[in-house]
């Protein structure tokens, strides 16, 4: 069991400066973005609170904006989660359990809208992406910091406008707003559609900001092939955000005008075509599922590398497969419409391209598995979530191929099989990766260590609860349980299965509560985190303090190695181990948290392929 | 040095430079550019934001951001162009009839106005690059004026249409007695000889030209079915059957194309007895409306630029906003270049 002691024999002598000379003056960990800029010590009491609140609300610091996004999407996730629990509870018994059929329609619609537009689309890119992207490329901030803050507020305004719809009768269309029903039902649709339109701008501006930042703001030495895979996935995501989101914008605008001015584009009674709405909608919403999942791929790549102490296998293949998925994702929207009256030829083509998407996804899965092979897998909480991701996403992906097959889809369309499939991908994929990423970067973001045991318990509960909730839904779906139905009077044999699923949702909810409590506990009583508790090799670990400076770095770092060259990053085999100003990088200090130090295992120095 | 914030780095060409440089190339403190001291103790150009390393980086980032924004604009309008293309393919006659209602002369005039404004905005950028402040401000205001002229013409076009009862969608005022599609599908209106009510009273069946296999459907769904799946439907006459149906509909209602409007206030043409007329004008109003909105946004942006330029905010070392608004203005022009022939000419 090796510890993080520098290996004695190196081709180059170790730099003369001591490995851990402390931090440059004014850049000690106490001077971090959480406190600075802030009011001076002379401001006290309520005035202090007000000054701090104002500082945060008007900040253009990408790290603070990332944290504000994190709080917002967590809130949205909690709201959507409780709605999901309500949906599951209603299905616990046949007939009315806790709500009427009308309420049920509204609850599952709100669950979908909140989870898709308020939570999962902005989840990883806007929170973790905002926080990490500039640090990972060695920049002080994103290219357009004010725009970044603006997109946060646009997101907030969009959310408020959407929720205003609740006061106008709510929405019962499902999150897809299919016409002509969405044209005829209550007026809440107006506000929901407008809210989605506004939130789309937020998504576009975030993506635009990220692309420009990645293109123009990389630190010296940060070549495209030295970018962490998380950045590649964020880059691919941003492409999709920019190219797809305007289409949902115009779609929602047309739906809005359709309701207000009766323009008739989607209304068959005026000569329009309701299926055109489906085409428009899925032209955004299918690429949007890649907005949701691609950042998760990036997070998992980081976790796999760091916790296997090994370079991510097939770096370029993993990086480019993200871009390939982003581009192919634009050509498959028709697979949502196999039963909507689409020509057989286009159905066949859409089905074929859907299968093709399996290839880059498969490349990623295989490469992650290969990364672990002969690595020193360190089963900390983030890695447990990454492994959960690997397991659940594979099931979700393979069942996706199943429903992408034409004949199978006719049978499974609009059943619980589809519900289970996309929950395996979205929750089993994105949410698991986000939880893993949150645990991984939590010490960097907050400067506090969470409780490892509680983290592991939560990972176990989430894994068990998730599978209990959703695996059974594959079975229910293949037996014919339709999605969005309030009741199942003709299928009484499904009742026990529904009950298992509902109980599973409680276990899942409990697991997520443990995650939440663990985080809150760590803020309150957690141990201070060391600079690099996991021995990561990307810039946020090797060149920034914990928590990072207001300006991220004392000086722009000079990048001399790839993102997964752990030896080079930590011991200076090829790099100089220095930040740009000649101070040693505040890196491999793992002395805080003794238990971790003891448990810290093989650093990979004995592996021939981990040295470049 | 006269100005304490002016820094001249050992540059032989930097004498007591005027407040705004004459032939500067950006961001190096030469040519009397205004410099400020950053938190790292070094001097930076005043317009350089702290998170950029150089003025070039800032300029390039801004410009790339603008280009990406323009991509989203193209996709936004792309959705509407798709809607246009689809309905044009379904109802070619309708689109031909309806476009005759648009005033080609005014449209062409507006096209020229916009093209001229593209010239003036490009000229403004050039003026900024050559530090010609007077020309810059003049050209910006001229662009605003041309855009205003465009909107004025648009206003007269719209009001004229409203007078004639040409509204989008449901509110399009058909000639007296013309049945709407809703009435036709509900079976409450008199039907054309080419079509009969299905047995349940809810369906229209096309008796001539429709293929035996094609399911009977509502009137408006015959067209999508026929055009959407040409491979699946070998019946070549399917598309024509739609036209025949439409013609028959018009005839059956007893409204010939002309002769009905003696008052002669402009409601001429078969379009006023076409129950689907609202579709074309929906697309027309939505597309030109959103385009007009972009013009207004551009006018506001250009007005702000002009005021700031008047105050000497833009010089040859810093004119990024002028460049970006210019780019935006060109995309607005280009969209009109596509709108004009699609709506007015064909």
TrEMBL record, chain A:
InterPro entries recorded: Cyt_c_oxase-like_su1_dom, Cyt_c_oxase-like_su1_sf, Cyt_C_Oxase_1, Cyt_c_Oxase_su1_BS, Cyt_c_oxidase_su1_bac
Give its E.C. classification number: 7.1.1.9
Q: Where is the Cytochrome oxidase subunit I profile domain?
A: 48-560
Q: In which pathway does it act?
A: Energy metabolism; oxidative phosphorylation
| Membrane topology listed for this record | Multi-pass membrane protein
Q: Does the keyword Cell membrane apply?
A: yes
GO terms (molecular function) for this protein are: cytochrome-c oxidase activity; heme binding; metal ion binding
Which ranges of the sequence are coiled-coil?
none
Specify the enzyme's EC class, one word. Answer: translocase
Tell me its family: Belongs to the heme-copper respiratory oxidase family.
Listed name of the protein: Cytochrome c oxidase subunit 1
* Classification lineage: Bacteria, Pseudomonadati, Rhodothermota, Rhodothermia, Rhodothermales
From TrEMBL, chain B:
Q: Which InterPro entries match?
A: Cyt_c/ubiquinol_Oxase_su3, Cyt_c_oxidase-like_su3, Cyt_c_oxidase_su3-like_sf, Cyt_c_oxidase_su3_a-hlx
What SUPFAM superfamilies does the entry give? Answer: Cytochrome c oxidase subunit III-like (SSF81452)
| GO biological process terms, semicolon-separated | aerobic electron transport chain
Q: Where is this region: Disordered?
A: 1-36, 206-267
Task: Kindly indicate whether the keyword Membrane belongs to this entry.
Answer: yes
User: Which Gene Ontology molecular-function terms are recorded?
Assistant: cytochrome-c oxidase activity
Q: Report the principal subcellular site.
A: membrane
Q: Where are the transmembrane segments?
A: 67-87, 107-128, 135-156, 283-307, 327-345
What are the annotated GO cellular component locations?
Answer: membrane
* Pfam families hit by this protein: COX3
Origin: domain of life: Bacteria
* Gene3D superfamilies in alphabetical order: Cytochrome c oxidase, subunit III, four-helix bundle
Keywords from the UniProt entry: Membrane, Transmembrane, Transmembrane helix
Low complexity bias (residue ranges): 247-256
Q: How does it sit in the membrane?
A: Multi-pass membrane protein
Bias (Basic and acidic residues) occurs at: 22-36, 257-267
Q: Where in the cell is it found?
A: Membrane
Domain Heme-copper oxidase subunit III family profile, which positions?
A: 63-346
The similarity comment for this entry is: Belongs to the cytochrome c oxidase subunit 3 family.
Question: What is the name attached to this protein's record?
Answer: Heme-copper oxidase subunit III family profile domain-containing protein
Q: Which organism is it from?
A: Rubricoccus marinus
């Amino acid at each position: 069991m090796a510890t993080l002691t520098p290996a004695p024999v190196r081709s180059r002598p170790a730099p003369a400066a001591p490995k851990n000379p402390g931090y440059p003056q004014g850049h000690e960990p106490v001077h971090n973005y959480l406190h600075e800029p802030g009011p001076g010590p002379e401001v006290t009491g309520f005035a202090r609170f007000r000054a701090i609140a104002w500082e945060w609300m008007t900040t253009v610091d990408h790290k603070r904006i990332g944290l504000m996004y994190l709080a917002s999407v967590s809130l949205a996730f909690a709201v959507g989660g409780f709605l999901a629990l309500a949906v599951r509870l209603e299905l616990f018994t046949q007939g009315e359990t806790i709500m009427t059929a009308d309420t049920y329609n509204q609850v599952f619609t709100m669950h979908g809208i909140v989870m898709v537009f308020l939570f999962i689309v902005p989840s990883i890119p806007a929170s973790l992406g905002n926080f990490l992207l500039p640090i990972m490329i060695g920049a002080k901030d994103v290219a357009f910091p004010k725009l970044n803050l603006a997109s946060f507020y646009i997101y907030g305004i969009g959310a408020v406008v959407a929720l205003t719809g609740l006061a106008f009768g709510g929405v019962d269309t499902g999150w897809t707003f299919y016409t002509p029903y969405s044209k005829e039902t209550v007026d809440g649709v107006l506000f929901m559609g407008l809210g989605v339109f506004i939130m789309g701008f937020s998504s576009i501006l975030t993506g635009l900001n990220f692309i420009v930042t990645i293109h123009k703001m990389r630190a010296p030495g940060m070549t495209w092939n030295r970018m962490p895979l998380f950045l590649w996935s964020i880059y691919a995501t941003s492409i999709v955000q920019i190219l797809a989101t305007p289409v949902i914008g115009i779609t929602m605008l047309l739906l809005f005008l359709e309701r207000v001015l009766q323009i008739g584009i989607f209304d068959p009674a005026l000569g329009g075509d309701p299926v055109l709405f489906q085409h428009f909608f899925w032209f955004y919403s299918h690429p949007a599922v890649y907005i949701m999942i691609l950042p998760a791929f990036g997070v998992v790549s980081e976790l796999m590398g760091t916790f296997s102490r090994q370079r991510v296998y097939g770096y370029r293949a993993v990086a480019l497969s993200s871009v390939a998925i982003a581009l192919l994702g634009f050509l498959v929207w028709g697979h949502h419409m196999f039963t909507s009256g689409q020509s057989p030829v286009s159905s066949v083509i859409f089905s074929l391209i859907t299968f093709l998407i399996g290839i880059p996804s498969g490349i990623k899965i295989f490469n992650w598995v290969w990364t672990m092979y002969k690595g020193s897998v360190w089963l900390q909480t983030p890695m447990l979530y990454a492994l959960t991701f690997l397991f659940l996403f594979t099931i979700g992906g393979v069942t996706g191929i199943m429903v992408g097959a034409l004949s199978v889809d006719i049978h499974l369309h609009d059943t619980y099989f589809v519900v289970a499939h996309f929950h395996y991908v979205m929750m089993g994929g994105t949410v698991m990766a986000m939880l893993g990423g949150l645990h991984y970067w939590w010490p960097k973001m907050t400067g506090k260590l969470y409780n490892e045991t509680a983290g592991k318990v939560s990972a176990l509960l989430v894994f068990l609860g998730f599978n209990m909730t959703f695996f059974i839904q594959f079975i229910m779906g293949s037996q014919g349980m339709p999605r969005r139905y309030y009741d199942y009077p003709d299928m009484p044999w499904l009742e026990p299965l529904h009950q298992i699923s509902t109980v599973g949702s409680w276990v899942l909810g409990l697991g997520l509560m443990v995650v939440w409590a663990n985080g809150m506990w760590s803020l309150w009583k957690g141990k201070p985190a060391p600079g690099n508790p996991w021995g990561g090799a990307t810039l946020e670990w090797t060149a920034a303090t914990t928590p990072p400076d207001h300006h991220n770095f004392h000086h722009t770092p000079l990048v001399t190695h790839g993102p997964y060259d752990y030896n080079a990053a930590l011991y200076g085999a090829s790099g100089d181990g220095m930040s740009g100003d000649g101070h040693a990088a505040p890196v491999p200090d793992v002395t805080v948290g003794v238990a971790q130090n003891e448990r810290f295992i093989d650093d990979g120095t004995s592996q021939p392929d981990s040295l470049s | 040095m006269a100005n304490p914030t002016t820094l001249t780095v050992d540059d032989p060409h930097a004498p007591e430079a005027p407040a705004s440089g004459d032939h500067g190339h950006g961001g190096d403190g030469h040519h009397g550019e205004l410099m400020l001291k950053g938190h790292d103790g070094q001097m930076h150009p005043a317009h350089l934001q702290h998170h950029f390393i150089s003025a070039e980086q800032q300029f390039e980032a801004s410009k790339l951001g603008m280009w990406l924004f323009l991509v989203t604009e193209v996709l936004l309008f792309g959705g509407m162009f798709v809607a246009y293309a689809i309905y044009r393919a379904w109802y070619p006659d309708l689109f031909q009839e309806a476009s005759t209602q648009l005033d080609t002369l005014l449209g062409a005039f507006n096209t020229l106005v916009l093209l001229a404004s593209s010239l003036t905005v490009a000229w403004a950028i050039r003026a900024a690059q050559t530090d010609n402040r007077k020309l810059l401000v003049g050209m910006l205001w001229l662009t605003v004026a041309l855009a205003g002229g465009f909107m004025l013409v648009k206003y007269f076009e719209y009001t004229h249409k409203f007078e004639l009862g040409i509204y989008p969608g449901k509110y399009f005022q058909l000639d007296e007695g013309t049945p709407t599609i809703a009435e036709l599908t509900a079976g409450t209106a008199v039907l054309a000889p080419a079509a009969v009510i299905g047995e349940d009273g809810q369906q229209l069946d096309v008796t001539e030209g429709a293929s035996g296999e094609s399911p009977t459907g509502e009137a408006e769904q015959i067209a999508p079915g026929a055009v959407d799946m040409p491979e699946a439907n070998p019946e070549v006459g399917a598309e024509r059957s739609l036209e025949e149906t439409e013609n028959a509909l018009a005839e059956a209602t007893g409204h010939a194309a002309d002769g009905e409007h003696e008052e002669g206030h402009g409601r001429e043409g078969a379009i006023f007895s076409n129950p689907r007329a609202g579709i074309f004008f929906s697309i027309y109003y939505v597309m030109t409306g959103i385009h007009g909105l972009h013009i207004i946004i551009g006018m506001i942006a250009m007005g702000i630029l002009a005021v700031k330029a008047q105050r000497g905010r833009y010089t040859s070392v810093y004119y990024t906003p002028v460049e970006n608004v210019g780019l935006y203005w060109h995309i607005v022009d280009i969209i009109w270049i596509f709108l004009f022939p699609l709506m007015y000419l064909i």
